[in-house]
Amino acid sequence: MTGAGLTEVTVDDLVDLARGAAVLGTGGGGDPYVGRLLAEAALREHGPVRLVAPDDLPTDACVVPVAMMGAPTVMVEKTPSTELVGHAVTALAEHLGITPTHVACIEAGGVNSTFPLVAAAQLGLPLVDGDGMGRAFPELQMVLATLDGIACTPMSISDEKGNTGVLRTVDNRWAESLARSMTVTMGCSAIISNYVMTGAQAKSALVHGTLSLCVAIGRAVSAARSAHTDPVAAVVGAIGGAVLHTGKVVDVIRRTTTGFARGEAVVAGADGDLVLHFQNEHLMAMRDGAPVVTTPDLIIVLDQDTGEPVTTEALRFGHRVCVLAAPADERWHSPEAIELVGPRYFGYDTDPVRVMT
């Protein structure tokens, strides 16, 4: 999955970028509409954001990611201010006594690919054209940086009330546990900045070209609609994936617990039912009681007619959808990565089932 490299992001790119980010977000990463609106406000005020490919980062660059942490279902009703996004970066920088040179995305997702644009625009910094996963995962330690031995903390965490904290933990799993507790106390949604890394580390730990790919996916959908061709097929072509299932959502069980949106959805189609299991993101698709695709590969739900991505908080009874699958970055299939993000970590009694394209 690659996209032609961009050199900057403008307001005109945001619809396509947010759409493509929500595709890669596998149902999580936050509402793309909310993320787009906040990014649009920041870019209109401060101007376009320059993109820098990871390979072009100076070795001694100071790269600071920023993201939303919490349940996407909550953020729909509790939208953070644009100022809060930049504040998370500056609070961490002040604590560490560092000067950030670049902002980065820690994951692909509807808001977590656009919030870094907000911070970059506010702070006048370039944004790295990459992310820490190539998709979205629900927990802080689930990034390629963890596999590279990069520490999640010190990290900042801020809420809309004005509370800000800085965590130092013994490892990245403890960062997830303690930050999750704080996020729940903060109302199940907070802004964080973490995984500060050098340019040399970023080149190794990030998935390259994510934002360019997001725009390419979004543009493919726009072009298909203009040409009155199949936008779902356009997405499949853009991500190198496959259609798993087409049908109607006939049941959704969704609950917000321990800072996550957890649940299951049943999609009824001509070849039976497909059951989706999610924890913010779609983690497993099952047919006839057997998994057909599991994490770490991508499971994506699109509106059947428009090709628009459908997040887990937006799944509704009667929605006609196509379920896609696409391969994850190959690094996610190493034994160490499977231990970190494989189905057994999430409590599913199965080995990973990979996408067949």
UniProtKB/TrEMBL annotation:
Record-linked Pfam families: S-Me-THD_C, S-Me-THD_N
Coiled-coil boundaries: none
S-Me-THD N-terminal domain span: 13-168
Superkingdom classification of source: Bacteria
Residue ranges occupied by any S-Me-THD-like C-terminal domain in the UniProt entry: 171-353
InterPro entries recorded: S-Me-THD-like_C, S-Me-THD_C_sf, S-Me-THD_N, S-Me-THD_N_sf
Protein's name in the database: DUF917 domain-containing protein
Species name: Pseudonocardia humida
